[in-house]
Amino acid sequence: MLTEQQVTFFNTFGFIILRKVFSEDEMAIMNDEFDSLLNIIQRQRPNGEPPKHFNWSNFGPETPFLSALPEDPRICETAEQLFGEDAVAVSSNSNRRVGDTRWHSDQTHPHSHGIKFAAYLQPLDASNGAFRVIPGSHQQPLNENLKQIKMNDPDIDVPSYTCESEPGDIVLFNFATWHSSWGGSSDRRMCTMDFYRNPHTPEEVEGVYDQVKVDEQVYANVRTYGPDFPPHWLANPHNSPRSPRRQRWIDWLRKYGF
Q1: Strand pairing report for 114-120 and 188-196
Q2: Tens digits of per-residue pLDDT, 82-135?
Q3: Buried b / exposed e across 29-44, counting CB within 10 Å, b at 16+?
Q4: How far is CA 95 from CA 37, 91, 163, 204, in A?
């Protein structure tokens, strides 16, 4: 859970760094599960090397710790604190990237609302691909004004904040916040969890459907292993102590076409 000051910081700047959320033992498990699927993907590719950006869902049985993270109180209760008790987890993914990630926001519609929890598996700073953010860029008119600027022109020096992080930290940010990564290594690893705010107006419903459509297009280009929502996760065994919350998420995901 966030303190009142942390909530104000997040709402003001569109991001916050949460330090030492995961223990060393938990990070070891996350790395093991990441490596296990990385090895599967490498064996399936002709040259044994994954593409520059690849992504898979962690909801499968091969990654039990990562699969359960969205239901971890440290994650879901924080999302519910920011978006209300009806906030919905829509993904738990692993990502491997090579090189730069240009300036962009993850919001596809002005009335779609999401947040991302990003846990990097290596120490990152300005020299090797740390997450960069333009503070306050989730708010208007700055958000819209940035769309009118050639943000990725090499001649433009974009004022930004570099989120230096260590394994165990989480960078939490609003989908609408403009962000990037520069100078990244050849093997930058990240585990993410996305939550959507449940829509309460016709405009927000339209925003969710738009976000779903764009997500499908994005993942079609980068997904390298398995479905978004494996049967193992959708089965939601009734003996799971967290099953009511997950079942609400599953029903919502089906309703909106995920």
Answers
A1: antiparallel
A2: 999 999 999 999 998 877 889 999 999 999 999 999 999 999 999 999 999 999
A3: ebeebbeebbeebeee
A4: 11, 12, 18, 28
Token pair of 160, please? 């930004």
Task: Compute the distance between CA of residue 109 and CA of residue 113 in angstroms, rounded to an integer.
Answer: 8
Residue whose structure tokens are 């033992």: 25
- Average pLDDT rounded to a whole number, residues 50-56: 74
Place of tokens 């490596």: 35
Closest CA to 37 of 226, 232, 228: 226
117: phi then psi, degrees, rounded to nearest 5: -100, 120
Got the DSSP string for 77-112? HHHHHHH-TT-EEEEEEEEEE-S-EEEE-S--STT-
Pair of tokens at residue 37: 């699927």
pTM: 0.94
